[in-house]
Structures are given as structure tokens and as C-alpha cells.
Amino acid sequence: MPRVRTHSNPFHYYERQSKLDLTSVFPRFNGTLDVDIGFGRGVFFRHYAARYPDRNVMGVEIRKPMVELLKERCQEMELTNVHLIHGNGHICLEDMLEDRSIDRIFAFHPDPWMKKSHHKRRLINHKFIDLMTQKLKSGGRLYITTDVEVLFRDIHETLLSHPQFSEITDDDFWFNYTSHWTEFSQQESRTVYRCVFEFTTSTASESL
Ligand SMILES: C[S@@+](CC[C@H](N)C(=O)[O-])C[C@H]1O[C@@H](n2cnc3c(N)ncnc32)[C@H](O)[C@@H]1O
After folding, report:
1. Is 17 in the pocket of ligand 1 (CB under 6 A)?
2. Which residue from 59, 149, 182, 206 puts its CA 20 to 30 A from 48's CA?
3. Can 111 be counted among the known catalytic residues?
4. If we measure between CA atoms, which residue out of 131, 137, 30, 126 comes closest to residue 80?
């Protein structure tokens, strides 16, 4: 396995994508769609897809060697509910998926861009959250982990103040959660911050 840079600047990867026909990429498509953005070595992705064979799981990763590696692993495991894409997560979600098509988005240890001045480069920024409000179904969820406290606080505060996202607990999910980067953080005794937000199409004030 060649050594590859851990973090790629997504601004160097612009390739636009065409709309994806979910029924052609998932042989048993049943309407569910969960997306793992920046799956890296795919530890979480493989565990999750194997555990939930009735959910359709799509992964997007900007580093091609990781996509090739995970494709091989998924084939070895005979996973048929998965689809992997090489590309920039933001662009892929924007171009390939219909609005209100995603049930769950996973963004685990998304990026190293900690400074406010690097905000535009981050995977989870205001533009990404706007995109989530288009692509998530009502009741859809966004799952996030990071070991970078300042990044977590920024993301968490932004989502807390968003009228269409509410923070929820999902203990069952975290009980089964594992990711390469989380294991790595724990080995190095770094705290892993995590949160889950649920999206609704109407705001609380609209429904009064
Ligand atoms: C720190 S690793 C975490 C990998 C995995 N999620 C985990 O928890 O072990 C971050 C991953 O996100 C990928 N990534 C960063 N920005 C991305 C983007 N805009 N689109 C797709 N992948 C991205 C990187 O290439 C890297 O593999």
C-alpha cells in the first residue's frame, strides 16, 4: 500500500459529476441512503455496511488509493449494499444526489483545517451545512466526530444555532461505532468529540 498524504486540499479537486441512478448502483435499492464522506481506510464504512445489509451505503473519498483499497475490501467481504466514489465530497453530494435523498451523513474526523482563516477549505463549513439542508430527508441525521476541540466547538455551535438542526442522542449508534482515526486518537490519548444532529424541513416557529 503506497504512502499517501493524509489530507488533500479539496480545492485542488474540482471535477464535476453527473446524476447518480441509485437503483442502478445498488442492486437491492429500497430508498434508504447513508453517505460516509472521507472514509479514509474505510474501517467504519465496512463495519457499518456489514452490520446493516438492508441499508444502502455510499462512500466518497478524495484520495484515490483509499477508494481502491476499500473497493477490494468490500469485494472480499461480498458487500452488495455499497457504492464508492472517488471525488470531492461536497461536489459529489451536490451533483450526484437528488434533494431529500439522504438518511444519514457520516463525517468522521473530517479535516485538519483548524484555523478560522481556513474555514473555506474545511469539509464541514457553512456551505456544506447549506448543502445538507438540501440533500437530507426530513428526519435525516448528521453524525460527526473529531479529536480537534476547536473544530468541534465551531461545528457544534454552528449546528446548534441552525433552526433546522436539533442535537439528539443515539447511544445505539455510538455503541457500535468504530473508525480508524478514532482508534488512532484513543491510542494517543486524545479526546474524541462527537455529536449527532437531526434535520427537519420545517423550523419550530413555522409549525406553531
Ligand atoms: C482524518 S481522515 C479520517 C478517515 C475516516 N473517516 C476515519 O474516521 O478513520 C480524513 C479523510 O477525509 C478525506 N477527505 C478530506 N476532505 C475531503 C473531501 N472534501 N471529500 C472527500 N474526502 C475528503 C481525506 O482524504 C481523509 O481520508
Report:
1. no
2. 149
3. yes
4. 30
Domain ranges for the chain, please list them: 33-115
Asked whether 147 lines ligand 1 (CB < 6 A), one says no
pLDDT tens profile 169-206: 999 999 999 999 899 899 999 999 999 999 999 765 55
Distance between Cα 62 and ligand 1 center (Å): 7
Identify the residue whose C-alpha is closest to ligand 1 atom 12.
38
Whose alpha carbon is nearest atom 1 of ligand 1? 109
Q: In the CATH scheme, what is the homologous superfamily, with its name and number, of domain 33-115?
A: Vaccinia Virus protein VP39 (3.40.50.150)
Q: Which helix (H) or strand (E) holds 155?
A: helix 149-160
What pTM did the predictor assign? Answer: 0.91
Predicted confidence band of residue 8 (pLDDT cuts 50, 70, 90): low
> Whose grid coordinates read 481506510?
41
